[in-house]
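Repro case for the chain-ordering regression, as requested:
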Amino acid sequence: MLSSLKQQLIKALYSAGVTGSIELVTPPKPEMGEFAFACFNYAKKLNLNPAESAKILVEDLQKEIAEIDILDKVEAVGPYVNFYLNSSLLAEKILGSITPDYGKQEKKNKKVLIEYAQPNTHKAFHIGHLRGTITGESLSRIMEMCGYNVVRVNYQGDVGMHIAKAIWAIIRNKEKYDSLKHSSVEEKVQFLGMAYADGAKAFESDEKSKAEIVDINAKIYKQDKSIKEIYGETRAWSLEYFDKIYIKLDTHFDRLFFESEVFERAIGIVKNFLIEHLFAESEGAIIYRGSTQGLHDRVFLSSMGLPTYEAKDLALAELQFKEFNPDKIIHVIAREQTEYLRVIFQVLERTLPNSRGKESHLAFGWVSLKSGKMSSRSGQVVLAEDLINDINKKILGIMEESDIKNKEFISEKVSLGALKYSFLKTGVHNDIVFDLEESVSLSGDSGPYLMYIVARINRILDKAGSRNFFKKLFKKKNVLPKNIDSIEKQLLMKLAEFNDIIKIACDNHDPSKIAQYLFSVAQLFNNFYHELPILKAENEDKKFRIEIIKSVHIVMTKGLYLLGISTVKEM
RNA sequence: GCGCCCAUAGUUCAAUGGAUAGAACACCAGCCUUCUAAGCUGGUUAUGUAGGUUCGAUUCCUGCUGGGCGUACCA
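-- result from build under test --
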């Protein structure tokens, strides 16, 4: 928003004799001005110490900046040249720029496929899937805001050994399975989770069971009659359950890909390229020798002739390019698969040359629990559903004494906000340590803290009779007070950063940049709210402050939207 | 063993190579006859270790220590 002003200042610095690339920084304290230029490199060129060169530069700048009317003064402070902006003109400029479209960037005419969630049927939807899903939806919204044509896709594993393990256990507990047919989807899925855990355990510990599971796996691929009914039924349970979760998380997909629709083609691709010696035979399996390229060797076709995840990914990529012809594909997948995906991308350069440079992996960090590592094999998984319910309970507790209506509705929105924020506020690549005792944070640097800002502003605007504040925003008459408080100026400057922050989040594929920014807006707003009266302020001040809170409302609502969080009117 | 990633306050997280390393939680002391106290104000506490590059290093490089992940028929 203030980039044109920055450009003007940079131009002035060049005219004053600065060379090389120039970057303006924000001074650490508001009383030090709004922008600053560090003179270290400049001083080197002049062969002076930085503080002296800053003084000289300020002298040389006087002529250049005379015509920039928004600039109040320029001052040398130690090794920095600090620029001080006129509060009134700045406020006018910033408030004028914050429209309901604020943050939206020009169309880029680029299609990006964002693949996320990727749960496997017959297994739990756990805390790791939750992070991936929340991250994927947020990234989608951010990239849309930045002008990309985003296609949301999901790739769900509905064939393979994990299914065989579950079905093996289900067959041995057929009575329970039969009894569940009219139960809730939650109960059904819980049963599947247990079955998977049992099957996985038997697979590890007992050779006979292992052989049986391997046999079932082959039957799944062949759609063998003996398991077809159970397979179809339980697959449907999982998918119904996933849909409920996606709706709850406020995400959706333009296309659901399944392993079952790509595995045949997967075998074909591997066989074709075996002839071209891209793959090799080893111990009865067809493998790719990544080790010759500094990567891992990976099995693509098992010794039973069945495709592994590796092979299926080749066919998936082919299908994704065929259907959507994207400029870029981002696979939002946990970090532990980084080296695996490097192999896949390398193989794809041969099997699908068009994919070169377009496939990418957004590796999100591990979600661990303070009480220990999470694993669906041990059966001690933290289910997404349980976590959400747990948070909801705590929020209802907090709301107990309030006289707000619709408590259930609001507490659900607030718990989802709390959950999403707690996952997104940490850098996307970094691990998150989750304390189940404390659940997610509900105060301080938390989702509810941010949502609370919007609720507070709504209340004030209601009382001020500005319900239609979006319309009113444009009909204002630029009533600005003569004295603008430092806190008001800081808040406005922060609001002006929104566009830059969105761009950074988009370029880095990292929603945490938005989350951290919104928190700083919220802190400044709460400062402002406590320091300065709004409705009881004098005429000009009151109008000005109402304009400010409308702008805060826009930025907070949009920013939270980018995190996948919808706000509530009151809380 | 080899490869990739990480190490900042009691805890969980920030910090394009630059101004006094910021927050939140927890703990202590205050603030509701005044726009929602899920809030605000004040207080205590940190860059794993040894070197190197630089005017300047939490940031870049190397060794060490301590963690996480990956490493053939799972996904």
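Ordering looks correct now. Chain A is about 55% helix and 10% strand.
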